[in-house]
Write a structure and sequence with these properties.
The protein is mainly α. It has 21 helices and 7 strands. A 5-stranded parallel beta sheet has the order 3-2-1-4-5. The protein has a two-stranded antiparallel sheet with strand order 6-7. Helix 15 packs across helix 19. It is globular, with a radius of gyration of 23 Å.
């Protein structure tokens, strides 16, 4: 029966590791209904359709490629038995489990299995990522030496990877890999233009040249380019931000990985090989590996582990709606240089690296008390690498602290001093990072104290915030700060 089964691959399962053999028959479905469900970033929609159509073209007669309104319509035209690797969302997983004639296999595309995670998590009071990361290193044999010891003697070199950006405002590195568009991209662009003109779909963000890999060959070229030219500088500057260089030394491979074009294990292996051959320092290889088999796998597993209700968590009772300027990526109406710059990057390319996401976008949303589910949905729609499983614990838990500390030890809230230290944004800003009152009051500095004042009782038991909470009583102008920030329309 297995030989007769055709492998149904979703649009985020496009790499060879989702097939059991090279000549396995494949089913690919392009569902128009998917793009109507949410108001996605235009470049995200383009990348997804481009990758799907490129995969169909590569496979040729090996694949049945159906363009229909819904998945169910397409499946009604397929009479042979199907198998599918476990989908990446609960809705899709429930859908495939309810289908007759479809064998659902374990999920692929991650470094560790769900069974391995649950075995690690069983009986633990705390599920901190660092502990899981060390276990994942051992399970995968990544950056470990004899007796499962960490290569170089330390599991985590994060303390060595917190350097601020260079003072001259640039990293002397080649730019990231850029693919070249082809006739498939032209077709996708024309189809999206027509669908938008007909009112069938609506997008946020701007169209632009495709910046991310849509094929396995492009993804491998991008990985090789990163390891050769950019990985060495990734470690020290992975937390730094520059207004003129949104990519910094980051790989920009998350979109390709989340489309299934790359396997995280092969990316981690490439980084480890570069270190063992003396081409990159350990702190850069380890920092990158931690993102892949630590953070990424952890987000995947906790999405399933915590269950459906986790996405509705709201421990801080944040209920404000996202303002229109944020929802529409209206970067030009924002005066705060950091937020304007990062929002512009999202508008123009549907991507920015993890520190602007966490400490500029997420930090601002946390301080303002925006509803965490709405923030999570915004990240899902507006980023080319955004998927439900990525954003659940990453935004709900880590960024917005809506789970009350199930995966982090304190909220990722910070004032302007942090942004000033780790970026060049404050140099040309109308606001001053040290000011919390007056016309030049930094929205992040003042917003930080408003956040603490608003949540003082809810955070009272958090020992990491105890010194800051005690300082609330020493701020003479706290009432003024709170009133001003509560009424601020836009930064």
């Amino acid at each position: 029966m297995a030989d007769a089964e055709r492998r149904w691959c979703f649009a985020d399962q496009l790499g060879p590791h989702f097939l059991d053999r090279g000549d396995q028959p494949v089913l690919l479905i392009e569902s128009r209904a998917v793009l109507r469900r949410r108001r996605f970033h235009r470049q995200k929609a383009h990348l997804l359709l481009s990758a799907l159509r490129h995969r169909a073209a590569e496979l040729g007669e090996q694949a049945v490629f159906l363009r229909t309104d819904t998945y169910r319509q397409a499946l009604g035209r397929v009479k042979e038995p199907l198998s599918v690797c476990g989908p990446t969302s609960r809705a899709a997983a429930a859908f495939v489990r309810g289908l007759d004639g479809v064998t659902v296999l374990p999920s692929r595309g991650f470094a560790t299995s769900r069974e391995e995670f649950e075995e690690w998590a069983g009986g633990r009071d705390s599920l901190l990522m660092e502990s899981f990361y060390r276990r994942a290193r051992v399970l995968t044999g990544t950056l470990v030496d004899g007796d499962d010891a960490p290569a170089g003697g330390k599991w985590n070199l994060d303390k060595e990877n917190r350097e601020p950006p260079p003072r001259d405002g640039r990293l002397p590195l080649p730019g990231p890999y850029r693919p070249e568009e082809d006739e498939i991209d032209e077709e996708v662009r024309a189809d999206l233009d027509a669908a938008e003109a007909d009112g069938e779909v609506s997008f946020v963000g701007r169209d632009g040249p495709r910046r991310f890999p849509a094929t396995r060959a492009e993804a491998l070229a991008a990985l090789a380019h990163f390891v050769e030219h950019r990985l060495a500088d990734f470690g020290p500057y992975e937390d730094a931000m520059l207004s003129g260089d949104p990519a910094m030394s980051h790989s920009l491979l998350s979109a390709a990985m989340n489309l299934g074009l790359l396997d995280p294990v092969e990316c981690a292996a490439a980084a480890e090989t570069a270190w063992r051959e003396g081409r990159v320092p350990l702190r850069s290889a380890e920092g990158y590996v931690r993102q892949l088999i630590g953070w990424r796998d952890y987000m995947w597993h906790t999405y399933w582990h915590f269950g459906r209700a986790y996405a509705r968590s709201n421990a801080l009772r944040a209920r404000r709606r996202l303002p229109q300027w944020f929802a529409e990526l209206d970067a030009d109406s924002v005066r705060a240089h950091c937020l304007s710059s990062v929002l512009r990057d999202v508008r123009d390319q549907g991507w920015t690296h993890h520190i602007p996401r966490l400490m500029v976008l997420g930090n601002y949303a946390l301080q303002r008390g925006w509803h965490p589910a709405a923030v999570s949905d915004w990240f899902h729609r507006c980023f080319v690498d955004g998927y439900e499983w990525v954003m659940a614990t990453n935004v709900i838990g880590m960024s917005q602290y809506a789970d009350g500390g199930r995966i982090t030890t304190k909220p990722y809230a910070a004032g302007g001093a942090y942004i000033n230290r780790m970026s060049d944004f404050c140099q040309d800003c109308v606001y001053r990072p040290k000011s919390r009152t007056g016309d030049d009051a930094c929205p992040y500095t003042a917003g930080y104290w408003w956040f603490l004042a608003r949540n003082e009782e809810r955070l009272a038991d958090n020992w990491r915030l105890a010194p800051q909470l005690r300082n609330l009583d020493r701020i003479d102008d706290l009432d003024e700060v709170v009133a001003r920030e509560r009424n601020r329309k836009r930064p």
